[in-house]
Specification:
The structure is a homodimer. Helix content of chain A is 76%, strand content 0%. By secondary structure, chain A is mostly helical. The longest helix of chain A is centred in the last third of the chain and has 27 residues, at 118-144. The first copy, chain A, binds a DNA duplex through residues 2-4, 7-8, 11, 32-34, 42-46, 48-49, 53-54.
Amino acid sequence: MTMAERKAFNKREKIIKSAIKIVNRRGYSGTTMEEVAAELLMTKGSLYYYFKNKSDLMFQCNSIVLLEAQEDLKRVLLDESLSIKKRLQEMVFIHIHYAIEENEVFNLIMRPEQLFSEEQLEEVLHLRDEYAAFFDKIIAKGIETKDFNTEDPIMLRMFILGAMNWIQQWYKPNGRLSKKEIQQRFWNYILKLLT
Amino acid sequence: MTMAERKAFNKREKIIKSAIKIVNRRGYSGTTMEEVAAELLMTKGSLYYYFKNKSDLMFQCNSIVLLEAQEDLKRVLLDESLSIKKRLQEMVFIHIHYAIEENEVFNLIMRPEQLFSEEQLEEVLHLRDEYAAFFDKIIAKGIETKDFNTEDPIMLRMFILGAMNWIQQWYKPNGRLSKKEIQQRFWNYILKLLT
DNA sequence: AGACATTTTTAAACATTGTTTAAAATTTGA
DNA sequence: TCAAATTTTAAACAATGTTTAAAAATGTCT
């Protein structure tokens, strides 16, 4: 990688980090290219040197956060020192953590087929599938070991992830329910569904 | 109500009906005032005679659909000829029906606090609370009659409604899973959670 | 029916924001 | 230092929500 390429790569990363913060504050449509640029003392035009367009930038914000969450999940999934149940519990806690803390950017709500180009859409869906597969894997393991018991584990996983994703629609940082409480109670429900 | 008022009222209704169709097809941000107007052979400017702005129009689309769904729920909730369980089952089927068929407009996704004005926001949240209360009521009844058994029924209701709401994020009209299948399996999960 | 008041529609201007462009400024590397 | 490559900029442009003032349509009263 040449000097220039490395520099561009770093800059791109800085822009994404900046954009993630703003998107989580203002939402997708509330985020303007101008504000993202201003944060880094640039003009909005320069962003187009690094990103094809706004939806490309949003796409990359989403991808970064999703990949980060995937890393967290993978670490737990492969931790053989933990029981299957414990591993799923931690994965549930991680998912809820992201749904709450990276709410807007974690799963860019809105029909992705409207926001994204054909190729982007394919990649987003692929990333989401990969992400969900982590949950499928641990559930499958648990069925094998008889820790869990359910028909149609895929549908159940969709049910469970949906319930968690929706948290971002009502969670308020200083509301009645703390993140910890939500994690704990949601985990109880999920365990009940799986046994 | 004078003639003119009645006419304006009807026109408003026509516009809303038209907008609902378009929003369900194109999503919130994909819907332009121009397209809504064109559907009724008007120019976009005239819409502002009937609605304060786009978000006001969206708000009223959302309200209409939400109120319609509330009516459906109420009918079932009060139908004493059905067992508690059966009533909840029908309510679940109704909710999933709306989540699928009126996907985009049923619960206007996106932070309502960004889309709506102060007063609108208050009304939206109120409507949503009212809506959720129908589920709380039947669950409370079921707990009384020992049909159901759960601590913290409110949180559980949030879990359940969230799971159902998320369907709109992945449901495809000609996909692998039919509406009926989803309704049936989701109901199984919900029943498991409640007993 | 005709005249006046009210209601409704329109076209055009405007504001905001995403996007493109051509040129200027900066950086790199020999 | 100088030419080539990279990056930034300001300005123009496009799309779309919003406002406005005037025109058109409608309703009402005599």
